[in-house]
């Protein structure tokens, strides 16, 4: 499992627990014995509030006390790999000492690159996102499984953006030295070939995430099995070209989050706003108007805020915009200092 993001504001805490129950039930009913559950980073979404920490505690207790063991064992071991620092922070320090005290459980956690072995002699390489800088010394060996977190790319696929300070792993190389490699970080299930994958999260919380959310399993022959998660709420994005099309769609009972991308000439703006205002009680409806002069993002509670496309583009990458501004105005390259300061703030 990967990119759970416990505490994500848009997600219902009960959906985490329902998904976990379904995941564990698949393990219990599977013909093969489960040897380990791997958590491939970004277990947490941010530094949790007290209420979010309570929900996270319930989730982690159910995960570790999973009752999926066989052959005299009560629970399946769970191995946790640290993910992006700004998500996981130091929060494992809060939960690990508590979980380690539970009888008949086995857990392992690492934020450093290391090698391990399961009880069935399967050899594991753990690759947290921020670990040993000298990765090369681990890549001259062979492994049964590689589990990790961070950007991966191949000659044909590079789905995950990375910053200059992040190490991007070669999916081809990881496939060459393992029987299967599974990473977290990118929020879309990805098959790079050579048995290298992004597992993807269990739940959706963004528009346009239309592909199925999956439970990811590897059997004893290192073959991948996936099962769809019906708990994952769909965030649908629909392009609208005329008012009647919009009226037809919103006249139905919409119970999942929808965002309408409305392509409108200026003379139709008032009509579109009027249509959406008649449905303002439905919290599942949001819309974005792309007109001749402005891009407008609207929901049913907020006032309309018009943002020109040029300004919107400038604020998408604030750090790079700052560096470019200083360079243009003063002819000074401050990229190194600003990135170092940004890293320092994120870690603190």
Class of secondary structure makeup: alpha/beta
Number of strands: 18
Q: Characterize the quaternary organization of these chains.
A: single chain
Mean pLDDT rating: 87
Estimated helix fraction:
25-40%
Uncertain runs: 300-316
Instruction: List SSEs in N-to-C order.
Output: HEHEHHEEEEEEHEEEEEEHEHEEEHHH
Major sheet details: 6 strands, mixed
Q: What is the C-alpha radius of gyration, as a whole number of Å? A: 23 Å
The 3D shape can be described as: globular
What portion of the residues fall into strands of 2 or more residues?
Answer: 15-25%
Per-chain topology:
Blueprint: H1 13-29, E1 37-40, H2 50-64, E2 78-81, H3 85-88, H4 92-99, E3 107-110, E4 114-117, E5 123-127, E6 143-149, E7 152-153, E8 169-170, H5 171-176, E9 178-184, E10 190-193, E11 196-198, E12 214-218, E13 224-228, E14 236-240, H6 243-250, E15 258-263, H7 269-277, E16 285-290, E17 295-298, E18 305-307, H8 309-314, H9 318-330, H10 335-347
Parallel strand pairs: 1-2, 2-3, 5-6, 6-9, 7-8, 9-11, 14-15, 15-16
Antiparallel strand pairs: 4-5, 10-11, 12-13, 16-17, 17-18
Helix pairs in contact: 1-2
In a few lines, what is going on in this structure?
The chain has 348 residues and is of the alpha/beta class. Helix content is 28%, strand content 23%.
Task: Give an overview in words.
The chain has helices at residues 13-29, 50-64, 85-88, 92-99, 171-176, 243-250, 269-277, 309-314, 318-330, 335-347; strands at residues 37-40, 78-81, 107-110, 114-117, 123-127, 143-149, 152-153, 169-170, 178-184, 190-193, 196-198, 214-218, 224-228, 236-240, 258-263, 285-290, 295-298, 305-307. By secondary structure, the chain is an alpha/beta fold. The strands form five sheets. Strands 4-5-6-9-11-10 form a six-stranded mixed sheet. It is globular and about 70 Å long. It starts with 12 loop residues before the first helix and ends with a helix. Residues 300-316 have low confidence and may be disordered.
């Amino acid at each position: 499992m990967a990119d759970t993001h416990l505490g994500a504001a848009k997600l219902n805490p009960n959906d985490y627990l329902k998904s976990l129950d379904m995941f564990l039930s698949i393990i219990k009913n599977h013909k093969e014995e489960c040897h380990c559950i791997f958590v491939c980073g970004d277990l947490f979404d941010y530094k949790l509030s007290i209420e979010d920490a309570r929900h996270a505690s319930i989730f982690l207790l159910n995960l570790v006390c999973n009752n999926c063991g066989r052959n005299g064992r009560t629970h399946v071991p769970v191995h946790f790999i640290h993910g992006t620092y700004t998500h996981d922070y130091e929060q494992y320090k809060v939960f690990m000492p508590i979980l380690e005290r539970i009888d008949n459980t086995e857990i392992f956690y690492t934020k450093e690159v290391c090698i391990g072995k399961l009880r069935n002699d399967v050899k594991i390489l753990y690759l947290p996102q921020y670990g040993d800088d000298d990765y090369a010394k681990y890549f001259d060996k062979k492994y049964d499984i590689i589990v990790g977190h961070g950007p991966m790319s191949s000659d044909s696929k590079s789905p995950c953006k990375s910053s200059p300070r992040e190490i991007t792993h070669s999916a081809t190389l990881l496939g060459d030295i393992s029987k299967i490699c599974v990473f977290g970080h990118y929020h879309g299930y990805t098959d790079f070939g050579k048995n290298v994958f992004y597992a993807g999260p269990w739940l959706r919380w963004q528009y346009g995430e239309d592909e199925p959310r999956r439970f990811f399993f590897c059997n004893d022959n290192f073959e991948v099995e996936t099962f769809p998660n019906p708990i994952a709420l769909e965030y649908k994005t629909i392009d609208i070209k005329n008012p009647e099309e919009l009226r037809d769609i919103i006249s139905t009972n919409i119970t999942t989050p929808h965002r309408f991308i409305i392509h409108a000439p200026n003379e139709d703006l008032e009509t579109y706003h009027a249509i959406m205002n008649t449905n303002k009680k439905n919290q599942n409806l949001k819309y974005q108007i792309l007109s001749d002069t402005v891009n407008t993002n609207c929901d049913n509670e907020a006032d309309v805020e018009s943002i020109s496309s040029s300004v919107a583009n400038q604020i998408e990458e604030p750090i790079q915009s700052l560096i470019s501004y200083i360079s243009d105005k003063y002819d000074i390259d401050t990229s190194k200092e600003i990135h170092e300061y940004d890293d320092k703030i994120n870690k603190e």
